[in-house]
Write a structure and sequence with these properties.
- Helix content is 34%, strand content 24%.
- By secondary structure, the protein is α+β, with helices and mostly antiparallel strands.
- It has one domain (6-414): FAD/NAD(P)-binding domain (3-Layer(bba) Sandwich), CATH 3.50.50.
- Strands 1, 2, 9, 10, 11, 12, 18 and 19 form an 8-stranded mixed β-sheet that branches. The protein has an 8-stranded mixed β-sheet with strand order 6-7-5-14-15-16-13-17, with helices on both faces. A 3-stranded antiparallel β-sheet has the order 3-8-4.
- α2 links the parallel β1 (25-31) and β2 (51-54).
- The longest helix has 24 residues, at 88-111.
- The chain is globular and about 60 Å long.
- 52% of the residues are buried.
- This is FAD-binding oxidoreductase.
């Protein structure tokens, strides 16, 4: 079993890195080479602006190519609960933004001719307990009336036709969910940005940000200094760089994934007859899907731990047990890949985007960011280029987490809390 991301290991190399020295000036400097940053760089370059993207490591090396490979519509929350906390108008706005984001990813794949196995397959949220089905039913009725007339609530028998497991009591089917090969998509997007004129510099961590006036900053790296008219922060939960304001609001939470060896076609059809993306209803649950070469990708918050080789291998064993408990027919299946990554969680589990002290940002996708990060890259680019002012994730305030300064000391306690909630639900 290889302790590396399947998406990274099976993607082509990024070929568009800038070879010339850092320029002394740019209209926009983008910090972060994941989906948000690269998508923004693509749109900014096509707007005629000079754009420099600075990435501390390799392009697409963090959350954008270390996730579960889902590209789903709808919010991660139970929609009824989101309406209760945000109001129907705001919750509907958030929901439709995710729908638009999936459509935008689909458009990019088509327009840029990115070979990434993209397909719309539907997302099925599975009720892990009988009591969870009532919550899914309430959400389905509300969503059908307000934001998604095609949504379906499935009973236990219907779910058993959808998935080769007896563990579930029903499910919520959203028909426009999708999936793709994250590594291939990310590299294709980055190459498109470079072709359009964006200058992309891997291994250029920002060491200092010096605000001059308004939105203008002097951006310092070990390889040079750039005068930027505007700066966009797109770093996710990375602690690389002088960004304490953001680090007090983003909590890095580990999520872990295993990928099986290639499965026999009949076996895969037994496990996932309709071949969708799937997520369970537990707070500490699982998510899974197949790949184009007939593997099962199976992930979850196996442990409240950071990602490293020791942690990843232990988490892989936990995930293997969960996978074979759910699908006993996979008990003799070998694992080919195992890895972990960090999810940029916010207190409300919603993205935040806007401007703080002259610095623009889009962060905090909270485990539901493939589609939204790509879409927000374009939206933030349009804001920076002064093409629009609409931003669904701009809030009046984004308070820091009390007692938190970037090191999530409370994660073990959070893990115990959510495990208890799952047991009692």
């Amino acid at each position: 079993m290889k302790l590396e991301s399947f998406w990274q290991a099976t993607a082509p190399a990024f070929s568009g890195a800038a070879s010339d020295p850092l320029p002394s000036q740019a209209d926009v400097v983008v910090i972060g080479g994941g989906f948000t940053g690269v998508s923004a760089a693509l749109s900014l370059a096509r707007s005629g602006l000079s754009v420099v993207l600075l990435e501390s490591g390799e392009v697409m090396s963090q959350a954008s190519s270390r996730n579960g490979g889902h590209c789903n519509t709808g919010v991660a929350h139970n929609f009824a609960a989101l309406v209760a906390s945000q109001g129907l108008e705001q919750a509907s706005r958030f929901y439709r933004a995710f729908d638009d984001a999936v459509s935008y990813v689909e458009q990019l794949v088509r327009d840029e001719r990115i070979d990434c196995d993209f397909r719309l397959c539907g997302k099925l949220k599975l009720a892990s307990k009988a009591t969870h089905l009532a919550g899914l039913r309430e959400a389905a009725e509300l969503m059908r009336r307000t934001v998604d007339p095609e949504i379906e609530l499935l009973d236990k028998a219907a779910v058993r036709q959808e998935i080769g497991s007896d563990d579930f009591h029903g499910g919520l089917l959203q028909k426009r969910g999708g999936q793709m090969h994250m590594g291939k998509f990310g590299v294709g997007l980055a190459n498109a940005a470079a072709r359009s004129g964006a200058k992309i510099y891997p291994h250029h961590p920002v060491t200092r940000l010096e605000r001059l006036s308004g939105y203008q900053h002097r951006v310092h790296t070990d390889q040079g200094v750039i005068l930027a008219d505007k700066v966009l922060m797109a770093t996710g939960c990375s602690n690389v760089g002088p960004f304490p304001w953001f680090q007090r609001r983003i909590v890095p939470v580990g999520s872990f994934i295993v990928v099986t060896e290639t499965l026999d076609e009949d076996l895969l059809r037994q496990v996932l007859p309709h071949d969708r993306t799937y997520v369970t209803s537990l707070n500490i649950g699982n998510y899974f899907r197949s790949t184009a070469d007939r593997r099962l990708v199976f992930g979850g918050r196996a442990r409240f731990a950071v990602s490293n080789p020791t942690s990843d291998s232990r988490s892989g064993e936990i995930l293997r047990r969960a996978m074979t408990q759910m699908f006993p027919q996979l008990s003799n299946t070998s694992l080919a890949y195992c890895w972990g990554g960090m999810v940029d969680m916010t207190a409300d589990r919603l993205p935040h985007a806007g401007e703080q002290d002259g610095l623009f940002y889009s962060l905090g996708y909270s485990g539901h960011g493939t589609q939204m990060s790509v879409w927000m890259g374009r939206l933030m680019a349009d804001l920076l280029a002064e093409k629009q002012t609409e931003n669904p994730w701009q809030r009046a305030s984004w308070p820091a987490l009390p007692g938190y300064h970037g090191k999530p000391w409370f994660l073990p306690l959070a893990g115990l809390y959510y495990k208890a909630k799952d047991r009692l639900s």
